[in-house]
Description:
Layout: E1 3-5, H1 7-12, H2 15-25, E2 36-40, E3 46-49, E4 58-62, H3 69-86, H4 101-111, H5 127-131, H6 133-150, H7 157-183
Parallel strand pairs: 1-2, 2-4
Antiparallel strand pairs: 3-4
Helix pairs in contact: 2-3, 3-4, 4-6, 6-7
Amino acid sequence: xxxxxxxxxxxxxxxxxxxxxxxxxxxxxxxxxxxxxxxxxxxxxxxxxxxxxxxxxxxxxxxxxxxxxxxxxxxxxxxxxxxxxxxxxxxxxxxxxxxxxxxxxxxxxxxxxxxxxxxxxxxxxxxxxxxxxxxxxxxxxxxxxxxxxxxxxxxxxxxxxxxxxxxxxxxxxxxxxxxxxxxxxx
Length: 186
């Protein structure tokens, strides 16, 4: 996939950021053959200009400092969200990704473990999960995959997912309390 960098991004682009972009893009076959413009943002971790038609220019903006695969994946998922609503190629887009930030977080985490390097921004996570994200990342990813499957029959799949994540944190806390009690010396 050809990448085009804005002049502002060219000044800030690091080898690490370029490598991360190229690695992440390999996991988005829906975007292959399209040109992606990558710009710089100071305001947020990232942003995407969601395409409204199949021929629209694909643009994301990223903050190079503290860049994570999760942020890159999230912004690329926004592009796929937009393109999936255009329905320009039914073979590539077998299912639409619902619009919105929370579905974007869910589909990003479900796409690959690569995107589990940082906690999602929009999903409601208990403080313990956010603070110890790497400990919970695989379990939350599995729950995101289950939520996408559940979506076919359960309208409130996001609420279900957030409740499951909350229970995951509660179970982990209870388990830690139990282990701590066993370790107490009298």
